[in-house]
Specification:
InterPro entries: MATH/TRAF_dom, TRAF-like, Znf_RING/FYVE/PHD, Znf_TRAF. The structure is a single chain. Helix content is about 30%, strand content about 25%. By secondary structure, it is an alpha+beta fold. The protein has 3 domains: about 120 residues, Zinc/RING finger domain, C3HC4 (zinc finger) (Herpes Virus-1, 2-Layer Sandwich); about 80 residues; about 140 residues, Apoptosis, Tumor Necrosis Factor Receptor Associated Protein 2, Chain A (Sandwich), CATH 2.60.210. Strands 17, 18, 19, 20 and 23 form a 5-stranded antiparallel β-sheet that branches. The longest helix has about 70 residues. It is flat. The protein starts with 11 loop residues before the first helix and ends with a strand.
């Protein structure tokens, strides 16, 4: 029975009776060391259904059965009986045929199988059977054979390559040796090392360098190949070739030098011509640059005059009391929203003007909610401002699916706000005033909805309307 165990089955197959429905019933009687002593003992200890030694005796239709042999949903009556009669019975190991000599009481059998050296277990390295009933499945061996298997025969055990000292699986060692860069191979030209017999042996990775620089039998080109000598020979013959063909090599060098002199003279003439052209172009560009500088100076003068006129106009406009109220609007596209929320970042808009006031929006991505505020910044017309500053601002989160469903929040600076946060609404003395926060603009969950967050970006409209000073 032990031979038929599958990967998913356990030790209960060996000690209990397994029925057709896959359940485990009474203890296997064939494991008893001594047979039951009498018919009365058989009647008291054996289940009338599974014929195994009883597990939790029950009375069903005037017969003793295992508690697990009672049909589901049927009333039964438990029977008090001395469980030691069953649990103290001596049984042998279910793997006795394999050589296990263990025997002990019934209640220790399952515990023994957890340690039994003859119990079949899967190879810890996961090697696969190549033949037999378990072909293609993970190999099973008796527990006692696992150490020898892992050490000597498992194809997935790791071996150390004697050449490169890398760890390689046993089943891949032959393929590894075919590519191992340290594996010794003969010189392709079968050259011999001086003072040694046989073909020179090299590390596989050293073969290209050996052929390119060392091997005396490698065919190489004459050093004067680029000058016209088209001879190829073994490297060991090169010295003799250079001595015998020295006069020919000299003529080739002389001819090449003459050709290069002619080429150099032609290139020099062309370079001189180019220099002359570039000098003419440089003079022309210098004149154009002088003209451009004159135009720039004239434009700067015009800009200065226009700027002076504009300041005069602004001074006239600001001389009226009260200061004309203005409105301003900024369309602010914010990208990478998910990352900003995750990092709890602060995001700032580009500065924009509302009348003479320079403003900037800010979003703080909190743990649960997104907070918003408006900064009043130093600008070019701060000496014309009327403070404390009062305004109504509206934050509009654009709905990309239905523009009629935009999320809007409006906040007005009140007299109470001016008293509570005076530093936020005074004329700016630094780069920007302290911000006037609205702590619960919108929750992070809402802002990440598909209708607001499109391609990980949102569009926020900021509208500000200035109010008369109190």
């Amino acid at each position: 029975m032990a031979e038929k165990l599958t990967d998913s089955e356990g030790r209960e197959d060996l000690v209990y009776i397994k029925t057709e429905d896959g359940s485990y019933r009474g203890w296997r009687v064939d494991l008893l060391v001594d047979n039951l002593s009498s018919k009365l003992e058989e009647k008291l200890l054996l289940c009338s259904s599974c014929k195994g030694m009883i597990r939790d005796a029950c009375l069903y239709q005037e017969e003793l059965r295992c508690g697990v042999c009672i049909p589901e949903g049927v009333a039964w009556q438990p029977v008090k009986m001395n469980r030691e009669i069953v649990s103290d019975k001596m049984i042998s190991c279910p793997l006795k045929k394999r050589g296990c000599e263990w025997s002990d009481t019934v209640n220790t059998a399952t515990h023994h199988l957890e340690e039994c050296e003859f119990f079949p277990v899967l190879c810890p390295l996961g090697c696969v059977c190549l033949e037999g009933e378990r072909k293609g499945k993970v190999m099973k061996l008796e527990k006692r054979r696992i150490p020898d298997h892992q050490r000597d025969s498992c194809p997935l055990r790791e071996l150390v390559c004697e050449f490169c000292v890398n760890n390689v699986k046993a089943c891949e060692i032959n393929l590894h040796l075919e590519d191992c860069e340290h594996f010794p191979v003969p010189c392709p030209n079968r050259c011999m090392r001086e003072g040694y017999e046989g073909t020179r042996q090299l590390k596989r990775r050293d073969v290209p360098v050996h052929l390119a620089d060392v091997c005396p039998l490698q065919k190489v080109e004459c050093p004067y190949w680029e000058y016209g000598c088209r001879e190829k020979m073994e490297r060991r013959e090169m010295d003799l070739h250079e001595r015998e063909f020295m006069h020919i090599h000299f003529r080739l060098l002389k001819t090449d030098m003459k050709q290069k002199q002619v080429q150099t003279s032609q290139e020099l003439d062309r370079a001189t011509e180019k220099i002359s052209i570039l000098e003419n172009e440089s003079e022309s560009k210098t004149k154009e640059l002088a003209t451009a500088n004159t135009k720039i100076e004239n434009l700067e003068k015009q800009i200065t005059e226009k700027d002076s006129e504009l300041k005069s106009i602004i001074e006239v406009l600001c001389s009226y009391t009260p200061l004309p109220l203005s409105t301003g609007q900024l369309e602010w596209k914010i990208e990478g929203v998910k990352q900003k929320i995750e990092n709890k970042e602060e995001t700032y808009s580009d500065p924009f003007y509302v009348g003479l006031y320079k403003c900037q929006g800010c979003i703080e991505w909190g743990w649960l909610n997104t907070c918003a505020c408006i900064y009043i910044m130093k600008g070019g017309y701060d000496d014309k401002l009327h403070c404390p500053i009062r305004y109504i601002y509206t934050l509009i989160l654009v709905d990309h699916i239905n523009s009629n469903n935009n999320f809007e929040y409006t906040k007005q600076v009140t007299k109470k706000d001016l008293k509570k946060y005076p530093i936020c609404f005074k004329g700016p003395t630094q780069l920007s005033n302290e911000c006037y926060w609205h702590p619960l603009f919108i929750s992070n969950t809402e802002i990440l909805e598909a209708k607001y967050c499109k391609e990980d970006s949102i569009t926020l409209l900021i509208k500000i309307e200035l109010l008369p000073a109190l």
